[in-house]
Design brief:
This protein has 73 residues and is an all-alpha fold. The chain folds into two domains: 27 residues, no CATH class; 43 residues, no CATH class. It contains two helices and no strands. This is Helitron helicase-like domain-containing protein.
């Protein structure tokens, strides 16, 4: 019931389950990156930054090289 509410134990239990399922499916990640934009306080700014981040980083010849699998939530 509280799983959709960010910050609750149930929410983080579900998120942890998703991460474990991804590790089981794709193997251990070589890079695990968490972005936080809380200091901006705007969903629009956070969305803009995420969109541009992936344009810069996840490219065939980008910083990380060829990225085969990534997850955005």
């Amino acid at each position: 019931m509280l799983a959709p509410i960010r910050g609750t134990n149930q929410y983080w239990f579900c998120v942890k389950g998703e991460v474990k399922a991804m590790i089981n499916e794709y193997g251990s990640p070589t890079l695990f990156l968490t972005l936080s934009c809380a200091e901006y306080g705007s969903a629009d700014i956070a969305q803009y930054l995420r969109k541009n981040f992936f344009k810069i980083v996840i490219l065939p010849r980008g910083v990380l090289g060829k990225v085969e699998q990534y997850y955005v939530k």
